[in-house]
Amino acid sequence: MERISEVSVNLLGYNRKQVNQLVEHKDQVIKQLEQKQTLLMQQIESLEEKVSYYQSIESALKDGLLDARQTGNEIIKQSEEEAEKRLNRANEQVVQFKESFIHYSRELAQNGNALKEKLQTMQSQVLTLLEETQSFVQETDFEACFPAKPLERLMEQLDIYEEEELRDLPQSNFNSSHQLSNEEKIELQRLIHEVIQNEAQQRRAREDKLVDFKKAKGFS
């Protein structure tokens, strides 16, 4: 729309048409300005709402940040206290473990030394026992302990006794399955005892030359 800035004047006054056009133009300008003002007001209100929204967000963020900072400080403090407690407990457990380890290690070492000494003593005793046994076996005359002649004489006497008993039996009652009676067994034991007593003196004379193994070991 063309801008009307001047109005012509004649004898009858202002040009009505031009005046009307000027008024209409001014009205349109005012209307446009009002529309712009309304639009600006709406934009201002929208901006104010946004500013208020952002301010509320900022306030919430500040409050949240403050709460988070306080909460974080509390968490850090609690964490530090808990960490210190756990560290103290861990140190106490380490000290107890070290003390227990040292105690049981010393006890184990002492038991090990005691066991070693016992084993060494047993080893010495076994070696001594073997040496004494070997010496006993080497020095003992088993032929003298069990001489052949007395045993042969015993067997001869038993044979003679058996032959005499067989001769005294009636021929009608003799058979190969005859068994000794109780009296015969007693008599046989008496003869054996006599033979053993005959060799007792010779055996006692030889005992001084033998090793008394039990006495040497201290056994009763």
UniProtKB/TrEMBL annotation:
Keyword Coiled coil: yes
Keywords tagged on the record: Coiled coil
Coiled-coil spans in chain: 16-125
Pfam families named among the record's database cross-references: DivIVA (PF05103)
This protein's name: DivIVA domain-containing protein
Organism: Facklamia languida CCUG 37842
